[in-house]
Amino acid sequence: MQDTKEIGVLLFPRFSNHCLANAVEPLRAANMLSRRELYRWRYLSVDGAGLASSSGLPVQPVKLADHGGDRLLVMPSYGFRDWLGPEVLAALRAASRRFGTLAGLDTGSWLLAAAGLLTGRRATIHWDEFDAFAETFPEVQAREDRVVIDGDRLSCGGTTTTLELMLALIERDHGGMLALDVAALFMHGERAPRLDPAIRVPARGMVQAAVALMRRNVEAPLPVAEVARRLGCSQRALEQHFAAALGRAPRSVYSAVRLGVARRLLEQTRLSVAEIAGRAGYADASAMARAFRAEFGETPTGVRKAAGGVG
């Protein structure tokens, strides 16, 4: 079993609720979907005093100096220039020795750069501040990207890009399938890419669109060739996209999607195993049970009993 990653979320007065949710909800979802505590997080502030978000949500954090961990997410959001004093910058430099990775979310890169923690590194920031950031910190390699990962320094440009960064980290930590499952909970990547032949769609975007289509067609699964046709590409091209993004074939991923649906129904409903098999696109319970054991190493009835359901 892999170790739980310890995440610190460093907040400042008037932080963004939206940014915070996009940072921690994917971690919660990864824990829920994997049925293991892959991530544990705590809310921090420089002085440990209580604070409130830009919309008034109160949070009682603990003191930054008392904690370390695998990753520190720095989230000042609005009014970040108010936190450029020596106390905050010294606290960030000290924290860089206790946390393995530092991430600037939204406007967090400004604080990291001011503390000298992005020198010679690639980084981005909220695009409203990008030009000023690039001019103020010429020693930082400012990039107009949504997400930038440069070794143990991470950054993203705003609230929605925070979700993209967290999905990228979940994929790096635990693989592409879990990241796709987490994204699906938030309907991220559900829209099919624009099928302009002059634009090369990245493998990740095509895979997300294909998996979204699979999720909408679980009870009556589509042939892989039909999935490709609806996305405007050849089956061979789709298979190449899946190989590049996940190292799995579309058929294998489709099976995992259907079995994931079956598992959630086993754990969360009182439907019979036979009815669940039908809802997951299997001809009968025996066929689902064979595929289920191959995917999870468990039987459907065993999973239901462990969840406290009925047989």
From TrEMBL:
<dbReference type="GO" id="GO:0043565">
    <property type="term" value="F:sequence-specific DNA binding"/>
</dbReference>
<protein>
    <submittedName>
        <fullName>GlxA family transcriptional regulator</fullName>
    </submittedName>
</protein>
<dbReference type="InterPro" id="IPR052158">
    <property type="entry name" value="INH-QAR"/>
</dbReference>
<keyword id="KW-0804">Transcription</keyword>
<keyword id="KW-0805">Transcription regulation</keyword>
<dbReference type="InterPro" id="IPR009057">
    <property type="entry name" value="Homeodomain-like_sf"/>
</dbReference>
<dbReference type="GO" id="GO:0003700">
    <property type="term" value="F:DNA-binding transcription factor activity"/>
</dbReference>
<feature type="domain" description="HTH araC/xylS-type">
    <location>
        <begin position="208"/>
        <end position="306"/>
    </location>
</feature>
<dbReference type="InterPro" id="IPR018060">
    <property type="entry name" value="HTH_AraC"/>
</dbReference>
<dbReference type="InterPro" id="IPR002818">
    <property type="entry name" value="DJ-1/PfpI"/>
</dbReference>
<dbReference type="Pfam" id="PF12833">
    <property type="entry name" value="HTH_18"/>
</dbReference>
<dbReference type="Pfam" id="PF01965">
    <property type="entry name" value="DJ-1_PfpI"/>
</dbReference>
<dbReference type="InterPro" id="IPR029062">
    <property type="entry name" value="Class_I_gatase-like"/>
</dbReference>
